[in-house]
Structures are given as C-alpha cells and as structure tokens.
Amino acid sequence: MLRRILIGAGIIAVIFLLFKFCEFKKSDDELTYNTNLIQQQIVNVGKLVVTEGHFSEVLTFKNQAQYFGGLVSFDKKALIIVNADVTVAFDLRQMKYDINEKNKTITILNIPKEEIKINPDIQYYNVDQSKLNPFTGDDYNKISKTVKANLAKKIEKSSLKSNAQNRLITELSKILILTNSMGWKLQYEGKVIENEKDFNENIPL
C-alpha cells in the first residue's frame, strides 16, 4: 500500500515538473520569438530616410577695381540664377539600440544626426568684365559660398527640416507600434516613448 502511494506521489511529481518545464519552455520560446520580431522590425526601419526640396534664388554680383587713386576704375558684374536641389537625410542604418529581454525594454541609444546636402546649379547671365578686372577663380568661389550660405538660411526658414523629422518619426513609430502591441517598452534619452508626440519632444532638429 505504501509502495503504491509512493509511486503515485512520484508520478504526480514528475507530471508537475514536466508541466512546469513545458510552461517555462513556452515562455522562453515566446520571449525569443518577440525579440527576433523586434530585431527584424529594427532592421526594416534601418534605412536611409531622405527628404528632398528645391530652392531658387537670383543674385547680382558687382565688383570694381580702381587705379591711380580712384581716377580710373573697371567694373565687373553678372546676374546669377541659382537652382538648387537639397536633401535632408537620416541614415537609420547607423542607429544604435539595446534590447533588454528580462525587462522587455528597447532603448534607443543613438539616432544619427541629419545630413544636409546642397547641390546648386549656378548660371551666370549678363556677364560684364574687362581685361583689367576679369572674373577669377576667387570670384567664383566667393559666389559659391554666398549662394550656399543664402540657401542654408532658406532651408532653416522652410518646412524641409520639419518634414524630414516627420518622416523620421514615422519610421521610428513602426518600432513603437510593435513594442506596444507586445507589451514591451521603448525608451530614448532616459524617457519612455509612448506616442509620436514623445518622439517630437525628444528629437529636435
């Protein structure tokens, strides 16, 4: 009788341990699946996000060379028309992050800074110069620097950078949507990101 009781208790103990093992295995498999799913989503987001814009401006260049104490002068001038293609890009392939399986937390460690590229097409019209005051390489370099400086100011005042930020947040939100759906947390700059507004407040351009 005692032997049967011991055998029965042993069988129950084995069943209990098997159940617990299967439960643990299921939880472990689910955690691995979630982690792999998140990593795949980050890989999908990890791309070059580019926002393009076009700007135009018209400049007038004038210069005067004087001789003999200003008694004789030679002018040079030109009408300059600029058409520029501008891109604002975020290379999310360089984004750094950490996945904490135990706490079910993803921490974005670094979001790469935006890269602004300005490609101006500079055309010269009504060029007026003399042999004693011709256009030189220095003149063209100065004009190019002035053009890029003016374009940079226009870009700052335009909606191009904010549009680029919106596209960036749209991509990052794909990670947020996935983590929320699985009960994980997404953190950046020491704060929990719960919605797109949190991204806007923590990713200034």
What does this protein structure show overall?
This protein has 205 residues and is of the alpha+beta class. The protein is 46% helix and 35% strand. The chain is built from four helices and seven strands. The chain has helices spanning 2-45, 137-157, 160-181, 196-202; strands spanning 48-67, 72-91, 96-100, 105-110, 115-128, 185-188, 191-192. Strands 3-4-6-7 form a four-stranded mixed beta sheet, covered by helices on one side. It has a three-stranded antiparallel beta sheet with strand order 1-2-5. A hairpin with a 4-residue loop joins strand 1 (48-67) and strand 2 (72-91). Helix 1 (2-45) runs antiparallel to helix 3 (160-181). The longest helix has 44 residues, at 2-45. It is rod-shaped, with a radius of gyration of 32 Å. It starts with a helix and ends with a helix. The relative contact order is 0.15. The model is unreliable at 5-11 and 13-27 (pLDDT under 50).
